[in-house]
Amino acid sequence: MVGSRVQVNKAHKSRYASKSSRDIHRTFGADKTRIAKSNNVIKGTRAARIKWSKMMRDQKRAAVLKEKRATGGSSSPPRVIVLFGLSASVNVKALAQDLLMVLSPEGALQKFNTVASPNYKLRTTVLEAPYGDLLSCMEMAKVADLIAFVSSASAIHDDDYIDEFGNRCLSVFRALGLPSTAVLIRDLPVDTKKRHDLKKSCTLSLASHFPEDCKFYPVDTKDELHKFIWLFKEQRLSVPHWRSQRPYLVAHEVHLVAGDSGEGNCMLLLSGYVRARGLSVNQLVHVSGAGDFQLSKIDVLRDPFPINIRKNQDLMDVEAALEAQVLHSLLPEPSKQEPLIVENVPDPLAGEQTWPTEEEMAEAANMNREKSLRKKTLPRGTSEYQAAWIVEETDDEESESYEHTGDGMVLEGQDEPFGEEEASGSELDEYQMGETDRETEADTLMTDGETLTREQIEDEIRKMKTAHAVDEEFPDEVETPLDVPARKRFAKYRGLKSFRTSSWDPKESLPFDFARTFAFDNFSRTQKHVLAKALEVDQGIEHECVAAGSYVRLHIKKVPLDVASKLCGASRNLPVVACGLLQHESRMSVLHFSIKKHDSYESPIKSKEALVFNVGFRRFSARPIFSTDNINSDKHKMERFLHAGRFSIASVYAPISFPPLPLIVLKSEHGDAHAPAIAAFGSLRSVDPDRIMLKKIILTGYPQRVSKLKATVRFMFHNPEDVRWFKPVEVWTKCGRRGRVKEPVGTHGAMKCVFNGVVQQHDTVCMSLYKRSYPKWPDHLYNCLGLSSAVRRVPCCPVIFLRFRSEILLKAIVQWLLLRMDDGMKEFQQMLIEVETEAEHLLLARHQMVENDRIRNANREAMTGLRRKAKTTKSSVPTPFESIMKEVERSESKTLVKEICKTCGNHDAKEHTWMMLPGSDIFARVPFHAAHAILEKDQERLDYEAKKLQSYVKEKSFSISEKGALSDKISPGIVRFMVT
Predict the structure, then answer these.
(1) Which of 179, 372, 654, 788 has its CA 20 to 30 A from that of 886?
(2) Long-range pairs for 946-953 at CB < 8 Å and ≥24 separation?
(3) Is the pLDDT of residue 398 over 50?
(4) Whole-number pLDDT of residue 805
(5) For residues 299 and 286, what is the distance between their CA atoms, to the nearest angstrom?
(6) Quick check: helix, strand or coil at residue 645?
(7) CB-based contacts of 555, cutoff 8 Å, min separation 6
(8) Which intervals carry biased composition (Acidic residues) (predicted)?
């Protein structure tokens, strides 16, 4: 007999419950005062739950009915069906004609791709995606309510159902966000069994490429088309979330009205149905490929495609119904209309980048408060004024250590300073300008595809591939040049004690382009307010708006004439879309995208390379810089190339947009802008100009002699001065050792280093340096389809106007240039006036610098005279309270540390001295100590103003020099002739 013989009884249901808790639901006769647990509360909560469930059910039902009426009712806009052929063998045009034939009423003309079917109670717009045109297919997918993928069942192999172009477009559609989808199968055989088997084979082959809810329909016969249309009518359509946040209009008609102002602008008229949300006449609108504009008027027209048409209406009445008839018009209110602001207008003399912020002022106040609370050992009878002159021993030690510090650069996160700045500032500035020019040339070499031959383009692509391979194998490593000192070549770089924890001020040394951008104090809160305001417009709270589904005509003002004419020509093959912008979405800022390289793109993508960004309905040119995404740090490492297989962050100057928005990056190959390739895809991450992207370089050296923890490293630098300059920066090895530079050895750049472990002879010694990188400002933002719409910036001439020696020469050259030009006379004249104004501002700044230098030299001479009179040097150690010190010294056993005045010395500090007060012609008699204190304070102020003026002059020179020569109006020879 197998098993245990121990009897196991059933456990009691009460388990660990006590007797009191077990009988709490009972009321005994002996204890009448005890109140049993009431079920009223349970009944009340149950009733509340039932009521709440019914309310939620009713709300969902009402929302579904509202959505159904909005998408399929008589007041809803026509549903857009995009027919996309998965291979070149599919005849999409024949299928579109069959669909329009089935949907059109009997005897009606098929002049338009939009039809209203009274039989199906449905209005539909049928668009044919042209095979091979990626841009057109992408623009149609942005506005599609249903993408019908058409496949041919006559393919020999399963791989022939979708060809290479079909796969590329499918990846683009997925990145944009797929709306509702369906697969239409054509060319099925007549035999029933073969037809069923071939349909099943085609379905199995294509099912993995589409969502799970995607349906497959055969559409060879008229009955099958009827079945598809009935199912399409009852289908609940889903669209991407980013499309439902903004109103948009797919233009049925595009016209332009020339303006009378003669400024080259016109009025663009777009007619179509308002979709997704209500559109306000006070909103800004974005026209795809053209830019952002204001509305001058909205005309609400009679619906040209009504569902209910009288049966006895003849063809002439139908054509008359299609004519536009204005029901009413909406005009904007000047006080409520959104201003068309693109760039911020900075004040060049504000010194906004050098003035301390409120946080810095608060930090300085806290430091001063801590210093004031620090206890000092003072002699008896010493007043507060006298105590201020007594310096503690720690302060003396700090000052001495600072004076004896060697040369070097500033290391962030380390208390030890790197030394005095002995290098010439003008030489460094000149060299940095040269380096910036060389980097700019290297970054923009491939952007000028029209001026390069095919062999030159292929050679540059080959060089970029080589550089990309080197960057993957040896990331961030650079060679120290032999002909240029490293302290000058890498003058813009600095060392960091810790990349994660060391501080880096986001407002420090910003370029001039950053002053033209906008930033938000709290971006998430602003986005919430903006979306709430858009919801109010959609709900009809504002009177100057039209509801979704209305047929309107938009009057878009101040559109460049050449842009409008090209849009009219492109509207035959490409849908022209006008999108209503949310608040602030026309202003420039720094946008950050999460981006990944497309699998089909094999060429390298370099930072600051010209690319075409498709963000929602927007399409613009940009030159991004790529960086990593560090979650645990406020600093992010810049990447020179966009590497495949992982996500990076692309930062660009672009108009503000609120996420979520998809991103498709296109790149023209071999200078062909009409056949771009899909380079990358992603989505909008954030809008933040303060995001810090640091370019990292690694200087490498090799151990020559190793002795335990010490090593002699060579080939990192080529002279001992560079070793002393970079001495405070920490070094590390590829095998995991960390150390520091001890001293230079010899005259060829070798150095002694001490590490925290034994260094191997085959190891490599590295030093990391960083500098902040910024994206490049786009010259032509909306120039993706040949539509020349530049960013709203003042066109300027090159830097040749900065060095004209007299105003007469400038006027003579301007007159000569105006006589030689035939086209664009007013535009060029205005351009020269703007450049002349900027040059005058720059000249005034230089005059102020000269005046400041004169006053500074005078102050230095006065200080020298005072020191000569007092017979002191900077290292003298006298005290103005010598008598008090002697009396206290007699009473105390311990000697006191005497206070030092570097200028007064043993001279009487209270001796009256005549001096002219700074900034006036007033002479006054002041004590000797007060005289030199006033001069030192005034000298500090002049030094600060001089730095501000130098920064302004440098930025202004860069901003004018970056605008380039007018190659289309002035030949390079004339430019060289005009430069002094």
Answers:
(1) 372
(2) 946/849, 946/852, 946/853, 946/856, 947/354, 948/351, 948/354, 949/845, 949/848, 949/849, 949/852, 950/849, 951/351, 951/353, 951/354, 952/348, 952/349, 952/351, 952/845, 953/842, 953/845, 953/846, 953/849
(3) no
(4) 35
(5) 18
(6) coil
(7) 267, 268, 269, 295, 296, 297, 298, 299
(8) 413-434
Per-residue exposure over 734-769, b if at least 16 CB sit within 10 Å of its own CB, e if not: eeebebebeebbeeebbbbbebeeebeeebbbbbbb
Closest CA to 268 of 253, 256, 282: 256
Helices (H), 134-283: 134-143, 164-176, 192-206, 222-234, 241-244
Q: Which two tokens stand for residue 692?
A: 């810090």
Distance between CA atoms of residues 643 and 606, nearest Å: 9
Kindly report the three-state secondary structure assignment for every residue of 889-957: HHHCCCCCCCCCCCCCCCCCCCCEEEEECCCCCCEEEEEHHHHHHHHHHHHHHHHHHHHHHHHHHHHHH
User: For position 400, what pLDDT does the model report?
Assistant: 36
CB atoms within 10 A of CB 408: 22
919 and 935 Cβ atoms separated by less than 8 Å: no
d(CA 804, CA 810): 7
To the nearest 10°, report the CA torsion of 100, 103, 105, 106: 70
CA nearest 782: which of 553, 580, 564, 590?
564
* E strands in 213-309: 215-218, 248-258, 265-275, 279-280, 284-287, 291-301
DSSP for 199-222 reads HHHHHHHHGGGS-TT-EEEE-SSH
Joined together, the tokens standing for residue 853 give: 């230098």
- Identify whether 77 is preceded by a cis peptide bond (ω within 30 of 0): no
- Distant-in-sequence, close-in-space partners of 96: CB < 8 Å, separation ≥ 6: 83, 113, 126, 128
pLDDT tens track for 139-153: 999 999 999 999 988
Confidence label for 29 from pLDDT (cuts 50, 70 and 90): low
- For residues 252 and 114, the answer to whether their CB atoms sit within 8 Å is yes
Provide the residue type at 793 as one letter.
Answer: R
Helix (H, G, I), strand (E, B) or coil at 528: helix
Question: Average of pLDDT values for 259-275?
Answer: 83
**What pTM value is reported for the model?**
0.65
Structure tokens at 376: 């000092």
Q: Which residues contact 118 (CB under 8 A, 6 or more apart)?
A: 105, 307, 308, 309
Ramachandran quadrant class, 964 (left: phi over 0; alpha: psi -120 to 50; beta: rest): left
Q: At 199, phi and psi to the nearest 5?
A: -65, -40
Backbone torsions φ then ψ of 887, nearest 5 degrees: -65, -45
| The 180-186 sheet, strands edge to edge | 114-117, 122-128, 79-85, 146-152, 180-186, 215-218
Query: Which residues are 386's β-sheet partners?
Result: none
31 burial type by CB count under 10 A (0-12 exposed, 13-18 middle, 19+ buried): exposed
- Burial classification of residue 388, based on how many CB atoms lie within 10 Å of its CB (0-12 exposed, 13-18 middle, 19 or more buried): exposed
Asked whether the CA dihedral 434, 439, 444, 445 is positive or negative, the reply is positive
Q: Which two tokens stand for residue 770?
A: 């960083």
**What's the Cα-to-Cα distance from 288 to each of 143, 296, 366, 588, rounded to whole Å?**
12, 19, 53, 17
Burial code of 695-705, b = ≥16 C-beta within 10 A, e = fewer?
A: bbebbbbebee
Whether 312 contacts 78, CB under 8 Å: no
What is the structure's pLDDT at 17? 73
> DSSP labels for 389-436?
TPPPHHHHHHHHHHHT--S---EET-SS------S-HHHHHHHHHHHH
